[in-house]
Specification:
17 helices; 53% helix; 10 strands; 437 residues; 8-stranded mixed sheet
């Protein structure tokens, strides 16, 4: 049995023991992945806060474009440099947080692996500027580079990575291969061909072989595209192999035993379908999956009252009741039947003294109480229906992946916007089951 998993009954999935995972000093990297809008950023931040509170020196790396992480941690802004969260940590624990700046990370790579003159030439090159700012997969590749840098520094014993908010959240596994292939592959070599052929013959070769691609790139880069590419390739030529080497090393790091992937989802059909995709993809890539974090799960402290019974009670109150509430005897109200014995008014049976105006017990106040009670019963019925629907959705996922450990996180009343909220999420993560379950 792997660390971070508690076994339960045969009909339920194993429980993800989050604290055990965080306390395991062999765990050095936790990657949170999943579809957009399921709470990955909040989960990553809450894990960082809880890990620091349990004595770990943790850093949270987010590449989510939303900046909620900085706000919830009380930091004015996040950038490409880890910043310490001052009020978090116990027993030697610390928490740092950062927001990936993909262009700055690319610039740092150039500055670290090229001499001063060549680095300046690369950074000023228009083709490089476009590539570093917007080439498909650059963000994910630079996240891998930054992860490798953080791990190499060894300043933290736990790195928590928050991935992009989309189904392409696992693109950070593919991006190094794609960008590496681009930089040291045939594409760049073909673009270099005109310089090797020379003159008009070179331009003719390029137009015949790459007319559609160069036409698109020319619109993006301008008329001097070919010269910019040639200058870029000439300056970067000695660095191309390094991109692939570092990408391969980081990919192997993600497959190593010290890494744990957490798939984050909400108890909704679409989100759990995406979660199943992530689970299968991670298995195919031999990435170590720790479990599933199911966010925003609804619970109830009165789940012994079913939705059906709550609705029936609400209807009874709204329709005037099946029981004669005035006499306290069985009988249909307004049935037209006469009582066999005189009965006193309801007020005299409830209290010896006539109620004061506006006090509980008057007929008007009773009707108001009935309406409020009926409304609350209907709200409870809706909540129980939501809980049942989430349970069915969760069961479908579990039937497909019974081996995946699960931690269920109860929904908070409002958004998380401070450290107290992150601590509350951490407590729910550690509990692993929703309230009332």
């Amino acid at each position: 049995m792997s660390e971070g998993v508690d076994t339960v009954g045969m009909d339920t999935p194993p429980r993800l023991a989050v604290d055990r995972l965080l306390d395991d000093r062999e765990t050095r990297i936790i990657v949170c992945c999943g579809a957009g809008g399921v709470g990955k950023t909040t989960t990553a931040a809450a894990l960082g806060v809880r890990a620091a509170g349990r004595g770990r020196k943790a850093v949270v790396l987010t590449i989510d474009p939303a900046r909620r992480l900085a706000q919830s941690m009380g930091i004015d802004s996040l950038d490409n440099t880890p910043r310490k969260v001052g009020t978090v940590g116990a027993g030697g624990g610390e928490l740092h947080a950062m927001m990936l700046d993909m262009k700055r990370t690319f610039d740092e790579i150039v500055e670290a692996h090229a001499d001063g003159e060549r680095a300046r030439a690369i950074l000023a090159n228009p083709f490089y500027q476009s590539l570093s700012a917007g080439f498909a997969g650059t963000q994910e590749y630079m996240a891998m580079e930054k992860l490798g840098q953080l791990r190499a520094r060894d300043d933290w014993d736990l790195i928590i990575v928050d991935t992009p908010p989309s189904r392409s959240a696992l693109d950070f596994l593919d991006a190094p291969k794609r960008l590496g292939s681009f930089l040291d592959g045939k594409f760049i070599r073909v673009l270099m061909a005109p310089a090797k052929v020379g003159g008009r013959a070179g331009m003719k070769f390029l137009n015949v072989g790459m007319s559609m691609m160069t036409g698109t790139l020319s619109k993006l880069m301008g008329a001097s595209l070919l010269k910019d590419v040639q200058t870029f390739v000439a300056a970067m030529d000695t660095m191309f192999g390094g991109f692939r080497t570092r990408a391969d090393a980081t990919f192997r790091l993600l497959q190593a035993p010290g890494t744990a992937f957490l798939v984050v989802a909400a108890p909704e059909p679409d989100a759990l379908r995406e979660a199943a995709y992530f689970v299968e993809r991670l298995a195919a890539e031999r990435m170590p999956l720790a479990g599933l974090v199911l966010n925003r799960v609804h619970g109830s402290g009165a789940d012994q009252l079913s939705a059906e019974r709550a609705l029936a009670a609400a209807e009874n109150l709204e329709e005037g009741g099946i029981v004669d509430q005035e006499s306290g005897k069985a009988g249909l109200r307004d049935s037209g039947s006469e009582p066999t014995e005189p009965t006193e008014p309801a007020a005299t049976t409830r209290t010896a003294n006539p109620p004061e105006t506006g006090s509980p017990g008057t007929e008007g106040d009773t009707a108001v109480v009935d309406r409020i009670t009926a409304g609350l019963l209907r709200l409870h019925a809706e909540r129980m229906q939501v809980i049942a629907r989430e349970q069915r959705t969760r069961d479908r996922f579990t039937s497909l992946h019974p081996e995946v450990a699960v931690a269920e996180v109860t929904a908070l009343p409002g958004d998380v916007h401070d450290l107290a909220g992150l601590r509350a999420i951490g407590e729910r993560l550690a509990a692993g089951v929703p309230a009332g379950a």
